[in-house]
Design goal:
The structure holds three protein chains of three kinds. Chain A is built from 13 helices and no strands. Chain A has helices spanning about 1-25, 30-35, 45-55, 60-70, 85-120, 125-140, 140-155, 165-195, 200-205, 210-250, 255-265, 270-295, 300-305. The longest helix of chain A has about 40 residues, at about 210-250. The mean pLDDT of chain A is about 85. Chain B contains twelve helices and no strands. Chain B is elongated. Classes of the chains: A mainly alpha, B mainly alpha, C alpha/beta. Chains A and B meet through α1, α6, α7, α8 and α10 of A and α1, α6, α7, α10 and α11 of B.
Chain lengths: ~300, ~290, ~550
């Protein structure tokens, strides 16, 4: 319940912060709606727009009106496209979430495999594992995307360089997002794996006749996966932000590309809408991962209760 | 959690799990540290005296040499106007580093203010700062930076500030954590029991012990800030081509990816190299801070 | 219980374990018969735990094990491969480690942990195994076996999870059980029950190898005792022989170091630290001093003090209506189990937290009522020593700087030139060489660190020291030296001590008066001799009865 209360608070604060940050923008929003300063809109047109969008109201009234509309799921109309933002984003969130979730899953598998294979197997394996993680975590998505396209599209011709709406078009974007994330996750997983492997419970397990593989599968892998679970909220947020880059490069219609276009055009309602939506996904995911890690690890529940 | 915190955690882990080395070799830095140090020295030289490292004028246009692949004459190849990519990479180092370092300073400064407020300002302030940081975390990754750019418009200066601001919550949380850990440590309690004043304890114990970790943090932060700033440039929201900034160079290379891969690969490698080097150096610093070379 | 006709369960001859070039177990030979309990005692680093692990083929990464005989349950396992060892582990030998919180996987239900050996070694169906787990948990005295089987180790109390750990070790009823410090992390009353359980398992015919640093624990259970030092067994014999008539000086030193029932003022450490001041050991404190003390106000007076902390869903009372006085030059012992509020009381006495109700006074003057600014100048009068000295030192500082910092408090404005001299003197008083001043605490041993901590406390010339479990992390011979040192310093300087410990033996040895704390309250207080010999409160009675006692000859 406390978690849920915190989530609602964060969403309210995000909406408030975004609303007032947007008001800092120099210039007249009505002008922006009518196509920017170059449009030479008439005074009547400007007044009309101000009335339509409620811009003639006092700021606080506008704020509460915004909160009220948010509760009903109304995000306003796009300045540039003149269609409801909710409609625009509703059509795109599915694809972006699919991209993010697939990348998260791939990153998880890669990270777990890498840390299991390279941890506790001697100095050379550790050094290689650490080097791979370090490099992966240092790769900028936009560059990785370009390199992957150069190799696998232009060079080998295995995958299309832009999204085609098919499964093979999704391979490179997912890999692009997953590899750096896997680098981060693997570093954390290796840490807890190392930690777990030096714990006395491993000695007791082996003293009961458990094999080395058995110890990994029944004991230490859980300890490695645990921080992976609790990081998944952060990871999803990171992926959604990364989608801005990746969707733009691979020309995938989605939240990220829409956001970038809206930022360039200063289409405020769309920017606000995407930001709120991503924040919502992040907050929901954080609540879920919190619940999941507490279920998986009773020690966390005790800490919280103390 | 933030990207920065993640980098920080992994450093802590690496340092904690690194085997203590025998005294004889403990004083020698590790091979990785040496390579990373050499790379950073190269970057510094490229910033201070780019002329020494450039093989030709980075802005000299030579249409006849356009799209030359890497060769002895042009180590990293040439771009669409025949400019030497290697020389441009060297020339761009200063700008890229400046953006990264400035953004880190901005982030660190805000983070320090918030962290110190939370760490020393009493329970109510601490609670308030923590909630604020939590809310800022709900704008993951570049989102906060994009919001700043919407408000102030694109450009290299805005991009730098935007990256700095969006890393601030991460710094704030780590710095607060460090202050709280030190403040509640037993050696601070021991100093209190001896009758030392609050100011003296902060000056002699809390600040010096927090300094090295914050320095390590800043080292890591520079790598991250360069990547983010380059991402904004790449998206056309930061430095613009034909500026010799790594992100802008990558953006320029994007169009010619199928004909001139080197326009993309080499500036990107510089970014990757910088991030890896700063991380490796940060780890070495952290180890040294714990009295283990 | 030893039956000479049966073949030994365990037969080891010339066991050697080396890590690289360092041999840590050097030619150990012994055997254990069915129903027999053999104990290996020794201090940390003696090689006792490595010996135990080597008997499971688990001496550790990078180790090299050799032996002329290594027979476990009639099978020779010297030079056996991992596969062969695995068949023996859990079936022929079981292992119990200390602290089940970390010795059982915190993420798995204990039932699964107990089920492991059944699954690995036996072809049993799931219901059969489940029934066996239930039976095992019941046999180790778990109140609600089915409920416990579904809990994870962190969700059980210390005693219960130790029982679960034992259940996992005896799941297949192995003829030999190795118990490596099985009760070390437990409170005395819980320890007594776990020892009784191990004794019960032994009486069913299981051979026990008990590894412990605690002679009193060993004296309880062992039929035979092996004393180990620096990788070798230096003395062995029946428990009565070794404890009653030790032959080796080291064994005598170990036994002498156990503080329980050694009268106050009698030194525990035979080889004494170099303390230059000659002290007449036989005479107790001068009666005149005690007489004066009786007329003065108490140096530290805790008067009807309570302290609660906010916890989710209410307030937790850590200290409830506690009154306690410490007079000049006397030692008051505060005993209690973990969570009884001892440390909160120490923090209240040190003025680190303020009481909700009641008051602490220092030398008749207000102490807890003062605000921090007014209290600060008087803080040097009351010093503190902690259980973990290392964490009480700034990691960047050398010993010399730590001491100089404290010394300046004792006499502000003194010329820094004389600091070097003062530091050398302080180090000498606590039995350390002057060269230690240049070292970092991290490079010192546990005993040396505690000496530095004591030197720091003394540097400010305090009148009373609050000692919170100052020796619980130390080996028994080191513990003896530190206790002797505190005793000497008290005599020389007329220091008052508030000595907090969970160890009744240590408190009995150190204290003039004793207060017993349970769940935030002092349930009994009085002269140490009286309280420990004829306890009035049932809790004290139980505490005294459960404290492991070393029977001396």
């Amino acid at each position: 319940m406390l978690l849920l209360g915190g989530a609602v608070f964060v969403m309210w604060a995000v909406a408030t912060l975004t609303f007032f940050a947007i008001r800092l923008i120099p210039g007249d929003p009505a002008q922006a709606i009518l196509g920017g300063p170059g449009s030479q809109a008439s005074q009547e047109a400007l007044d009309q727009v101000r009335r339509d969008y409620g811009l003639d109201q006092p700021l606080l009234l506008q704020y509460f009106a915004m909160l009220g509309r948010l509760l009903t799921g109304d995000l306003g109309d796009s300045y540039a496209l003149k269609i409801p933002v909710a409609e625009l984003l509703g059509a795109q969130i599915g694809g972006t979430l699919l991209l993010a979730v697939l990348s998260l899953a791939l990153a998880w598998v890669l990270a777990l495999a890498l840390s299991l294979v390279s941890t506790g197997r001697g100095r050379i394996a550790t050094a290689i594992g650490e080097g791979v993680e370090l490099t992966a975590a240092a790769l900028p998505q936009f560059w990785l995307a370009a390199v992957l396209i150069a190799i696998f599209s232009t060079g080998l011709g295995w995958f299309p360089p832009v999204a085609t709406g098919t499964a093979s078009g999704l391979v490179l974007p997912v890999v692009t997002l997953a590899i750096p994330l896997a680098g981060f996750l693997a570093q954390v997983m290796r840490e807890s794996l190392l930690d777990a492997m030096t714990q006395p419970f491993v000695v007791s397990a082996r003293a009961r006749g458990e094999s080395a593989v058995g110890v990994r599968l029944r004991h230490t892998i859980r300890h490695a996966a645990l921080p992976g679970i609790s990081l998944s909220g952060w990871a999803l947020g990171w992926l959604l932000s990364g989608a801005v880059v990746v969707e733009t490069i691979f020309a995938i219609p989605g939240l990220g590309r829409t956001l970038l276009q809206a930022v360039t055009l200063r289409d405020i309602p769309v920017v606000t809408g995407v930001v709120l939506l991503i924040a919502l996904v992040y907050v929901v995911m954080t609540v879920l991962t919190d619940v999941a890690s507490r279920t998986a690890d009773p020690r966390l529940r005790q800490e919280a209760g103390r | 959690m933030s990207e920065l915190e993640l980098r920080q955690t992994t450093i802590d882990a690496e340092v904690a799990h690194a085997p203590r080395r025998r005294a004889r070799i403990a004083r020698l830095p590790r091979a990785g540290t040496v390579v990373a140090g050499a790379f950073v020295l190269f970057l510094l030289a490229a910033t201070v005296v780019p002329g020494l490292l450039e093989t030709q004028d980075p802005n000299r246009i030579s249409p006849s040499e356009a799209f030359d692949s890497p060769s002895l004459a042009h180590w990293f190849g040439t771009d669409e106007s025949g400019r030497d990519i290697y020389s441009r990479v060297v020339a761009g180092t200063g700008t890229s580093l400046l953006i990264g370092v400035t953004a880190t300073f901005i982030g660190l400064a805000f983070g320090l203010v918030l962290g110190v407020l939370a760490g020393f300002g009493g329970r109510v302030v601490d609670y308030g700062v923590n909630r604020l940081v939590e809310v800022l975390f709900a704008f993951p990754g570049l989102l906060l930076a994009l919001l700043v750019i919407v408000v102030y418009g694109p450009g290299p200066v805005t991009a730098t500030i935007a990256v700095g601001l969006s890393t601030a919550p991460g710094y704030a949380r780590i710095i607060r954590g460090q202050f709280v850990a030190i403040r509640s440590s037993q050696y601070v309690e021991a100093a209190r029991v001896l009758g030392h004043s609050r100011g003296r304890i902060i000056a002699r114990h809390v600040l010096p012990n927090a300094l090295i970790p914050i320095f390590v943090l800043a080292t890591l932060g520079v790598g991250q800030a360069i990547v983010w700033a380059a991402a904004l440039s790449y998206l056309g929201l930061g430095a613009q081509p034909p500026a010799a900034e790594w992100g802008a160079m990558l953006a320029a290379g994007r169009t010619y990816l199928s004909v001139a891969w080197w326009m993309t690969v080499f500036p990107g490698l510089m970014i990757v190299g910088t991030t890896i080097s700063t991380t490796v150096l940060g780890r070495a610093l952290a180890r040294r801070g714990r009295g283990d070379a | 219980m030893t039956s000479p006709t049966t073949r030994p369960l365990l037969d080891v001859a010339d066991l050697r374990v080396a890590f690289g070039d360092t041999e840590v177990v050097r030619g150990v030979t012994f055997s254990i018969a069915a129903g027999e309990c053999v104990a290996i005692v020794g201090e940390s680093g003696s090689g006792k735990s490595v010996t135990a692990r080597a008997l499971l083929g688990m001496a550790g990464r990078g180790s090299h094990t050799e032996s002329s005989v290594l027979r476990v349950g009639g099978r020779e396992l010297g030079g056996a491969g991992e596969r062969e060892w695995r068949r023996a582990r859990g079936r022929d030998v079981g292992l119990i480690l200390q602290d089940a919180l970390v010795s059982l996987d915190p993420l798995r239900p204990v039932g699964r942990e107990i089920d492991d050996p059944l699954r690995i070694h036996e072809r049993m169906s799931l219901p059969e195994r489940r029934a066996r787990v239930h039976e095992l948990l019941a046999s180790v005295g778990m109140p609600d076996p089915d409920f416990a089987a579904r809990r994870r180790s962190g969700e059980l109390s210390g005693g219960l999870r130790q029982r679960a750990l034992i259940a996992a070790a005896i799941a297949l009823d192995p003829p030999l059980l190795i118990a490596d410090e099985p009760t070390t992390a437990l409170d005395a009353t819980v320890q007594a029950r776990i020892l009784a359980l191990i004794g019960e398992i032994q009486s069913r015919g299981t051979g026990i190898l008990l590894i412990s640093h605690d002679l009193a624990v060993v004296g309880h259970l062992a039929d035979r005792i092996l004393v180990m030092r620096a990788g070798e067994i230096i003395e062995s014999g029946t428990a009565a022989e070794v404890l009653g008539a030790p032959r080796e000086p080291y064994t005598r030193q170990l036994i002498a170091a156990v503080p329980s029932e050694v009268p106050r003022g009698v030194p525990l450490a035979r080889s004494e630290p170099p303390i230059p001041i000659a002290v007449d050991r036989s005479a107790s404190r001068s009666p005149a001093l005690v007489a004066i003390a009786a007329n003065e106000p108490p140096l530290l007076a805790i008067d009807h003090v309570s302290k609660t902390f906010a916890v989710p869903g209410g307030r937790f009372t850590a200290v409830e209506d506690v009154s306690l006085e410490v007079r000049r030059g006397e030692t008051v012992g505060l005993v209690g189990e973990s969570g009884s509020g001892k440390t909160t009381l120490a923090r209240l006495a040190l003025g680190l937290t303020t009481p909700d109700t009641g008051e602490v006074t220092l030398d008749g003057a207000p102490w807890s009522r003062l605000d921090e600014r007014t209290r600060r100048p008087a803080r040097r009068r009351i010093g503190a020593i902690y259980q973990d000295p290392l964490s009480s030192f700034d990691p960047r500082w050398s010993v010399g700087r730590i001491l100089a910092d404290a010394w300046n408090v004792g006499a502000p404005g003194r010329h820094p030139r004389t600091a070097d001299h003062a530091i050398a003197e302080l180090l000498e008083q606590v039995g350390l060489e002057a060269s230690v001043a240049r070292r970092r605490p991290l490079t010192l041993s546990g005993g040396q660190r505690q000496r530095v901590a004591i030197a720091r406390a003394l540097a400010a010339s305090p009148e009373i020291l609050i000692c919170d479990e100052p020796v619980s992390a130390l080996d028994v011979t080191i513990q003896a030296q530190i206790l002797d040192l505190l005793d000497d310093l008290q005599r020389e300087r007329g220091l008052a001590l508030l000595f907090i410990s969970h160890d009744l033996g240590v408190v009995a040895h150190m204290a003039d008066r004793v207060a017993v704390m349970q769940a935030g309250r002092i349930v009994e207080a009085g002269a140490a001799d009286r309280v420990l010999a004829e306890p009035e409160h049932p809790y004290t009675t139980r505490l005294v009865a459960d404290a492991p006692r070393l029977t001396r000859a």
